[in-house]
Amino acid sequence: MCEANVYMIKGEEEEMIMEAVDTVEPEDDGLKLTSIFGEQKFLNARIHSLALVDHKIFLKE
Amino acid sequence: MCEANVYMIKGEEEEMIMEAVDTVEPEDDGLKLTSIFGEQKFLNARIHSLALVDHKIFLKE
To answer: Do A26 and B48 touch (CB under 8 A)?
Structure first.
């Protein structure tokens, strides 16, 4: 499987927000994250960068 | 490996831009894509959405 973990960049810190994310889609003013288990989260954030071989998605508010 | 293919959304169409992308990073007014083979591309675009289990990254200009 090719899911990734989602981190929010906050200054110099990276806070893990959600594991095993499959899809990230724009929704209203933010993003809808859906994990491979079907869990969903809505965040007021944008996608900052990706490091897929490391299974990492970075967001910023 | 967990790389993905990058597609540009153009209206109703999706145009494949680059295969086997590892990292996507903001650079100047656009994005720097780097493949698992070390190839790089710069695009004036933003990340629109992700479908990682399908190995797809969607960009928009």
So the answer is: yes
